[in-house]
Amino acid sequence: MTAAGSVAWFAGHEIRLAWRDWSWLLSGGRRRRGYTVALGLIVFVLSMHGLAYLTLARSQGLASPPDKRMLVMIGGTLALYGSLMLSQAMEAVTRAFYARGDLDLILSSPVAAARLFAVRIGAMAATVAAMSLTLAVPVIDVLAWRGGAHWLAAYAVVAALAMAAVAISVVLTMLLFRAIGPKRTRLVAQIVAAVIGASFVIGVQFVAILSLGTVSRIAFLQSSAVVDHAPDSASVVWLPAYAATGDGLALAVVCACGAMMLGGAIRFCAPRFGELALAAAGISSSPARRSRASGFSPASPAQALRRKEWVLLRRDPWLMSQSLMQLLYLLPPFLLLWQSFYGDGHGLALLVPVLIMGAGQLAGGLAWLAISGEDAPDLIASAPVTTARVWRAKTEAVLGGIALVFGPFVVVLAMVDPMPGLIAGIGIALAAASATMIQFWYRAQVRRSLFRRRHVSSRIATFAEALSSITWSGAGALAVVSLWFAVIPGAVALAILALAWIVSPRRV
Questions:
Q1: How deeply is 207 buried, as exposed, middle or buried, from its count of CB atoms within 10 A (0-12, 13-18, 19+)?
Q2: Which of 86-100, 157-171, 180-194, 295-309 has the highest mean pLDDT?
Q3: Is 114 exposed, middle or buried (0-12, 13-18, 19+ CB in 10 A)?
């Protein structure tokens, strides 16, 4: 039996927590979905393997030593995965500082806190590696099937990248703590995580669109311009690529570097992890200090409810990272849209669909926080206001937040060109209102801390919200060219809303 307080005991505890987190993420907390989730996972794995086979079916030379073109392809793919891992690791470390509610219990228990934090850092590496392998496993398996078992070394390379990403994230987060304090670190770390995760993907896609007219990263990495300007095959830059193809020496060096980085982070950061995490917990849980005492001010119930929602949205700890990541990944598709559809004479028209799509996505998140993430439903229900006024105030708070964020963009756009500004304003209002209505129809009372898992509460609402934002964005993009072109996507958006309302549980 494992002794309490040992490394193995802490590791088992972290494994149980991770399993519960993944189980809730897949099933939404509903046990009856167990068989459905298992069947869905099987279908997902088979379909991903089939897609990987179709992608690699025409690849040649998988069994032979890698040439420069293959090294560029493998190295670029590993750089992509590395940036995504670093983003996930930054978010995981930030959540370990701010979102775990067991720090007081751990630090007051008669065990070495550094031992637990060492295990927790290692668990972050395992979690990041597992999430990355979810998409990498089908590709690696197909490569091993068609090119030989030496491609299985890519599993170890992914694990080494995960260890390096977590080590860098832990050190960077602790440096931010020392430099700007725990209160600012939460916001800055979320922005850094979103930018790191999207920078390489968006950068490669931008260059591919501008140079080749395609959003495909594969076509860009295989282009002659990239291959000709890449370092020689003997460069140390390609060490991870050689390791992924099964080169024993390169694999040993890459794994050793990843293990040394993670071990160094555990050795020097784990003993200080508890002090910084406790400081972060004090910041995240302590009430906001005011410079002056404020009492009750005369206001109508609607004004009080709107102010309450705005305060909660402003204080939400994870809204920035989730929303910023969604908005950043919208840029490449709309750059491709601008280049292929508008041409060189309508550069400002690119902003119209981007703003509409961003407003729909952000409104969905804000509406979920205000409607489903209400932390005091009993207090609101017992207030001397009608239910209709409560929902109206929440809706006004969400739309007011959208107006505050996107209003300046619309004003500037209208000053430069009035018609795109008018279209953008109408499209933002329609997309935000549609996303808010969908969240209202499919509302379910949950904790605000589950914001990043809100998509599992209702799959229908998730797809309806995404399709609604896409169609309104398409309508706005076509309306810039001709208002008549926007009729069809606008009608499709209204049909999506009608169908979502018909099948919504609130109506039933």
A1: middle
A2: 157-171
A3: middle
